[in-house]
Fold:
Amino acid sequence: MAIVCGTDLSELSKNAHLAALAIAERRGDKELVLITVLDPDVAHGDHHQHANTLKQRIDVEAAELGRGSAVTVRGDVIVGATIASLVAATETEGGDLLVVTSKGHSNEPMMKLGGTSGGVAATASVPVLVVRDAAPFAAWARGERALKVMVGLDDSASCEPALRLLRVLRGAGPVDVVAAHVYYADEASRRYGVKSRSMVESSPELDRLLIRDLERRLGHLPGAGEIFFRPRCGLGRIGDHLLEVADTESVDVILVGTRQKGGLGRLSSVSSLILHDAKQSVWCVPASIHAGRLEVPRFRVAVVATDLSDFGNLAVPYGYTLVGEHGGEVHLIHVRDEDHEGAAATDIEQRLLALVPANQTNVITRADVVTGDDTARVIGETAERLGADVVVIASRGRSGITRALLGSVADKLLRTCRRPVLVLRPPTE
Structure:
């Protein structure tokens, strides 16, 4: 694989040249390709003469850039529409990264990168790095310092390619990571079932729960470098808050996953806002990028809900099966309504603990009695607070008029719970 660097040969576009070379050296690439595009709709006069002139200039630039480096740098000129030509050239060269600069306008009839970076980021099938300052990349390549990268995390699938790229970067050299997440206090409070006293100020309890989940979302990162978790309580556009975190943490690069929306959809795109307004370099990773081999998840924390009926209790052994024999946690929970009567909570907890299968000494078991009139909502909130990897529940599978009148806890849990849910059905008669 190779890095393709788009250039208009201006002074500002040299930021992209230097950053691309630094990354190529860190990765151990053999070649770096500089591409400039001559747009026939902009150029005047003899296209061939312009192209020949540009080829001479880009060959000189490539030779100067590659002098003293183990990476071979070569240049090429393409006549065509700027964005389409850059994207096509990256595919032709087998490139896995396209590097451009956010500015770099010149007075010559070739591509204007200031209006091109957003276009290539929205259409390229490979990651696009928009460089605003090459100095951090050069220092990283020389081994003088770690590269500081901020990644915006949420529950969407668009984060996965960005996280894979982050692991690759850490494998190439030391990278400090700022894992940022913007949340809204009312939504987070409902999610975890905790009270929030303010809509604009962070809550220590919410921050603690969010940091725990961010650690799991980030997963294991190989290589050297520090890791910082920065949840941010928001009251406005997510992109604006992410930019605030990037400025506060003095990061070098913002790494974002993008769904590559088109048309009016780009107006509401977080990645488009960051690409347009960020002071830092921005590394855009398309969600459509090849996923590669999927990792097999491991369930470490299981929440098992039971109403303590014989059928409801059948869910308990499955919780232990899911976390395996090599450690983990199983939380046995029972939900009772606000106007509960009968046994005390401690007695119910003892009944729950009595359900633990034999020979489960390697698994931590906890019993909890929670209160609420909406059983499915309470189970979901409890699973969020406990950081469950999976929720297990037994359901009799009511249908027809019975389901319409009584509702189904399992059905609502499946629709509203953010965690994987295993539902046990009764055997057919």
Summary: Residues 1 and 365 are 49 Å apart (CA to CA). The chain has three domains: 2-131, 146-286, 301-424.
